[in-house]
Amino acid sequence: MIETICNSLTKKIIESVDEVDESKADEINYGLQLIIGEVPKFFITLILAILLNIVDLTLLTFLFVLPYRAFSGGFHLHTHLGCIIATNVLYIGTAYLGSVINISDNIRYGIIAYLFIFCFYIINKYAPADTENVPVLQKKERKKRKICSFIIVTIELVIAIFIPYKVISNVILIGLFLQTCTLTKLAYRITKNKYGYEIYGSN
User: Fold this and answer.
1) Are 73 and 129 contacting, i.e. CB atoms less than 8 angstroms apart?
2) CA distances for 171 relative to 62, 102, 139, 158, 180, angstroms
3) Predicted TM-score of the model (pTM)
4) What is the residue extent of each domain of the chain?
């Protein structure tokens, strides 16, 4: 349904604009699918957050995870249903777990130390983790996104250490862990994704 709508819109855009090649048309179509696909995803996430009474924590999860994901990248699922499920696992799951788990300060500091090492290792190795549809090939852009990912993780882990609200600290730690996992080779294999820079960068 969404794909049919996007194909129709892409065709109309191409017909109204001169000099649009095939690669540009693919980019337009992909962008439309992202935009239109986000609408039902947003409402489903909002309804789940309301039902679980975690709207405020879900918004906080978006606040902490989205900037990191924007720069570090991560896998994308190939169907809208899969994308909706993955989005809600990441954001609703993080918010809900953050509200129910209770860990001591000593364990929390240990988790933060582990996450610092884990996140920095994965970012250094894979970020920005692009895809075939949206590759990030320019070295300058890749370096900028990698540095921004390091900075965001550092800031958020510092916040997780010093913020007096344990639930918010939980949300930060769970969100960083799950998002970092989406960059890994294992996650890409499981979701049948390929890194764009590995495919196009070697050509």
Assistant:
1) yes
2) 10, 12, 32, 13, 14
3) 0.82
4) 1-51, 55-200
